[in-house]
Specification:
- The structure holds 2 protein chains of 2 kinds.
- Chain A is mainly α.
- Chain A is built from 17 helices and 3 strands.
- Chain A folds into 2 domains: 304 residues, no CATH class; 72 residues, no CATH class.
- Chain A starts with 11 loop residues before the first helix and ends in a 5-residue tail after the last helix.
- In chain B, strands 2, 3, 4, 5, 10 and 16 form a 6-stranded mixed sheet that branches. Chain B has a 5-stranded antiparallel sheet with strand order 12-11-20-19-18.
- In chain B, helix 10 packs antiparallel against helix 20 and helix 16 crosses helix 17.
- Chain B is globular.
- Classes of the chains: A mainly alpha, B alpha+beta.
- Chains A and B meet through helix 8, helix 13, helix 14, helix 15 and helix 16 of A and helix 1 and helix 2 of B.
Amino acid sequence: MKNQSLTNNIDWICIAIYIVLVLMGWLNIYSSSLSSMEGTADKQLIFIILTIPLIFIVLYVEGKFYEKYASIIFGISLLSLVGLFAFGKTIAGQRCWYGIGSFTLQPSEFAKAATALALAKYLSDSQINLKDVNRQIQALAIVFLPVMLILPQPDPGSALIYSIFIIVLYREGLPAWYVWTGFITILLFVLTLLLQPQYVILLALAVIVFIHIKSRLGDRNLVLSSILFVLISGFVLSVNYVFTHIFKQHHRDRFNILLGKSVDMKGIGYNTNQSEIAIGSGGWFGKGFLEGTQTKGGFVPEQHTDYIFTTVGEEWGFLGSLVVIALFVGLFLRVIYLAERQKTKFSRVYGYCVAGILFIHFFVNIAMVLGIFPTIGVPLPFFSYGGSGLWGFTILLFIFIKMDANKVNEW
Amino acid sequence: MRKVLLPTLIIIAASLLVIRLFYLQIIDDSFKLKSDNNAIKIKYDYPERGYIYDRNGKLLVANQPSYDIMVIPRDIKDLDTLEFCQLLDITKDDFLKKIAKAKVYSPRLPSVFLAQLNKSEFAAFQEKIRKFEGFYFQKRSLRDYQVNFGANVFGFITQASEKLVAKNPYYNSGDLIGKQGVEESYEEILRGIKGVKYFQKDKYNREIGSFKEGKYDTIAVQGEDINLTIDAELQKYGEELMINKRGGIVAIEPKTGEILALVTAPSYDPSILVGRQRSKNYTLLYRDSIANPLYDRALLAEYPPGSPFKILTGLIGLQEGVINEQTTYVCNHGFSYAPGRFMKCHDSGPRQLHTGIYNSCNTYFGNVYLRIIGKYSNTPYAVDVWSDHVKSFGLGQFMGYDLPTGKKGKIPNSKTYKKMYPGWGYSGKTIISNAIGQGEIVMTPIQLANMMATVANQGYYYTPHIIKKIKGETIDKKFTTKHVTTIDKKYFAPMISGLFDVYNLGTASALRVEGIDICGKTGTAENYAKIGGVRTKLEDHSIFVAFAPKDNPKIAIAIMVENGGFGATIAGPIASLMIEKYLRGKITRTDLEKRTLERSLQDRYAKLGGQSEAVKLEMRMRDSILKSKTIVPKIKTDTTK
């Protein structure tokens, strides 16, 4: 039984969804490239064909390999990110590619999988207890190391992805207040931009006083409540400061347009406005494959990469979009289900990471296209044009499929 | 619990996306309409722009039809370029350039190919327009000026800039918009709202009827007519008097703040900015940086006001109680206000408020100012008290009138001097030039006129404005709100009697008009220019302010003539003539009128860098217009220099 075929025990549901998504992605790239981006569909087809050997290699490698060499893979990945500062190729102001001839490789797409492996490896030690502050710091360090290297490229989109690891760590025992802090931070951030900082501070004061009185906290906790208030005020003021002084105008504009504070149909708001028009014109059933007038007209910029979902929305309509979303959600839930039934902590954590990473890409990308998230460069997994992205996501997913197939051999 | 978080997040997030999708795709159908812009043709129906009348209902600005040739570059097919160019009277080079430009804007959206053809230019082309696929015409209405004056008051109409089109969703490429003057400040009222009609097109780009039975169509709303406060006769007369001079005139009705005339010179005939020649003409005007005919001197030219400011010095002195009407200072061709410091004066003898004002005595007002600033031991405080009095006349700030340009002028306060004299004390003596309207004080002609209106009203003014009536609307409340100064009414009477004697006994006694009681004040403003790299003192700017009649003022006026010399030589006569024209409708002092009309300062201006071609052209045009219409005594334009 040792020499079973590669395909034995693998989860066909995941693979089926994967194949459907990749093919759907290619059809949409084909459609959106007809007007202006000739050749992109052919290139993407080559990328897709090249995933087949890639998948076989991933499946062929012994399941234990990934656990054994996780640290080394992580190390190499970090080195590749560091190397960008010296050898990186700058495209559109971002230094996040290696150029090999006309071919470019984006190491941050692979760093996600490497980080997931490293985190899984770290947490798989049964000695590790995330209630311990030192352990918390070490675990978070693994996540922040690549973020620190990616942020200055600058590639805030890729960096944003790493926030999902907090949820994974929470699953493995990280105290809940981390998640709460993250949630409240985002809430305060948005509120500060929407309202004047002084109102947000007043609001925070009211809420803290309310909670303090309501839950009959004593004098000792008064100090705690005060510190909390000072922290929140400090944060709100610094957000305001960062927004008005450190952010560049185009960053500010993205938020202002999203929050409805400014309207600009032809300038900065153009992308979002056009993508909303394209999607909105789809209606229930869409205009049909290759029939999208907005897609053909080339109104939506970056339509084959970050804005690929607009083609889905326009040509396949609400029902088509619903199918795509359902497929993605099905994949995520399937991976989580598989992760929970893993026998080793390593593969469970890794599976969780896979679901999380794919999910946050999915959500941020589509939310941006639908105009409920600021414009930020995050690809839609399996859909967006680009070799690095496609391969990164494929490797990420198939390593887990391999682990899952291996579980029968464990113990 | 910990296991549930991620799946829950996924479900919530996905639901959010589905709800948003449902909203975009199913509920909100405005996106659908927008996307159909390929399948739908939009036609605009441009309403006629509102007419502009003067205060007496005389029509000043009407409309004429005009035609823009529009192009959609993508749709051009089998064009007979030669015939096309001949019909439109353009060269092939022009043609190629314009097409290239349109393509840059957008190959599939319409842009203006050739703008503002008049009826006859368009007629020949119209017959054959069917042959030229990709081209169509857009009818618009253009201004038809009934008068050859008032260019600065009206402003002009021009195509909205690409920047504005991008910013303001109302305007499309090629749409017209008012610039400068009332065309700009009352753009939205004059313009109306254009109507939109949607037509369904088939795949061969043919119209096949109204889109959804006109469900989304809107009807054009006509622009409203407006009446200006301008008196056409007075405005015209003012511009004629200013021919061959540079400067500005502002006349205000004190009781209401209505602007009766707003003259800047040199100016231009508003009709030269209409039609196919407009951009050529505009460039000429725009490039003339020396005479600067597009620059409204009446609103924008800032100068130290000189002697007219003595009126305020006197009033503040009375109000602060540091002088009374009997307070006397002896002038000895000036006075020594500090060891080694002497303020010169053309005058001599004992002076009181009355004699001081009509003789324009520097000594008298220098002393009054020293008293004002010396009233408080804290000099900065005293300066602020003085500054607040002055500012209550609407000076040193944007007045809030309804014309799109303006300058604040400058009235110093303690902060100004803290910056100028950091670290060491200053006193009234340091800043004594303010007494006589020099030093740090700067004002525009309209501010001067408003100051005179305030004096005429004995202590209040209404924000000057140029709108009298908008059909179907009331004018802005701020123009009917009284602004009261910090000077008590009783102090104005002695000042006004002094100003009256400026005409009877004082510096303007040669300018009296029999039967009209005019109160006025002369002024001069020193000025310098670099000529050949050397700072040279030029002839003073001639300034004159006045109001009349003394007991029931109907007009307050300020005149500024660049390099005109002493106030009574050029600005003064213009003031007298304007006042007589407005109050009587005719001129009795024809000698004065003839002299003033013929007076040319072009030789003086020539020193500043010569007279530009544009001005010469303009002057010839005006000259010929005046001759052909022969309204007033003929004008001889000095074009020899």
